[in-house]
Every structure is written in structure tokens, then in C-alpha cells.
Amino acid sequence: MRIVAGTARGRRLAAPRGSGTRPTSDRTREALFARLDAWGAVEGARVLDLFCGSGALALEALSRGAAEATGVEADRAAARLARDNAAGLGLPLVVVADRAERWLGGAQAEGPWDLVLLDPPYDLGEGALAAVLGAVAERCSPGAVVVVERSARSPEPTWPAGLTPLEPRTYGETTVWFAEPPDADRSAPPGDG
């Protein structure tokens, strides 16, 4: 794995081994961030990366100009690796070793967040994902973008009333779902760059 663009472009990231985490491929990350950059969703953003694994998504956002980023990861070894990756790149990623659902219930999660990235384990149930998305919707800024990465075989996430889905993109075995607060009113989805 490597950082695709920005100040840390080309720098390598360590990936978790045997922890059950599934890193986002460089190709998927590149396409995802091309879309987010086209929307102006990264530069200066407050980023929340739930189920952050190695921290690759949050670190990509920081490399591309996000103002700050917090990663939440339940697996302690993966959270340690995310911290090590951030330190190695010199990027200010704050990593919290906790379950996303529990962390979102605390005061530290209040936001507002401009970009929320969720890459949960593929075996996370749809009900559990819906509960996390409900908590996320309450903490988004008015122009926020929420991204959910799932298996291409998974159904569309159940979006809470506070999020309006945008057109998804599929990259091989991965589908990336996008949503925004109802009043964000983005124009037609941009291409993938």
C-alpha cells in the first residue's frame, strides 16, 4: 500500500496482518479520492475515519490537504499500526482504539465532521452499520460527504433520515457508497478522474 497523492505521495504504508482488517486497494483509494477531490470534499476538511485499519484512508485525506483527521479502530494491533503509519509519514492522524459504535456515543465524537469514511469489516451486519450511520448523520457538517466501502455483494446501506445517498461506484469486488446531508445539494456526481 502507498499514499496515492499529495504531500506524502508514493510513501509506503504498512498493512495489518491477520487482524481481520481488509485494506482498501490503491486503485480503489485513487478513484475514491479523485471523486472526493472533484467535489472539493478533502481540502481543509475535518475527517473521521471509522474502522480505520491501517489508517490509509485518513492518511490519504491528510496528504491531500485535510485539516485534521481522527481514526477509530477496535483492533488494538491495527490501531497501533495506524499510529505508526501516521508517525512514519509525519501526518497528524489521531487514532483511537475503540469500537466505532461506542466511540460515537461519547463526547469526543461530537463533530461536526466534513468527511466521514467508513470501511467496516464486510461481515458487519446491516443493522449494526445502520446504527453507526445514524450516529454519524447527527455529527456531519451541512456540506459533509459520507463514504461507505462494502463488498459488491452487500446491499445498499440503510441510510438514516439525515443522509441522502448519491450514486455509488463499484471497483472490482468493492462498492463505494456516498451520501450527504439533505441540504448539501451537490450537482451531478463527477467522474472518477
Automatic annotation (TrEMBL):
EC number(s) stated in the UniProt entry for this protein: 2.1.1.171
Annotated SUPFAM superfamilies: S-adenosyl-L-methionine-dependent methyltransferases (SSF53335)
Top-level taxon in the UniProt lineage: Bacteria
Pfam families per record: Cons_hypoth95
Classification via CDD domains: AdoMet_MTases
GO molecular function: 16S rRNA (guanine(966)-N(2))-methyltransferase activity
UniProt region (Disordered), positions on chain: 1-26
Keywords of this entry: Methyltransferase, Transferase
NCBIfam families in alphabetical order: 16S rRNA (guanine(966)-N(2))-methyltransferase RsmD (TIGR00095)
PANTHER family the record matches: METHYLTRANSFERASE
UniProt protein name: 16S rRNA (Guanine(966)-N(2))-methyltransferase RsmD
Organism: Aquipuribacter nitratireducens
Lineage: Bacteria, Bacillati, Actinomycetota, Actinomycetes, Micrococcales
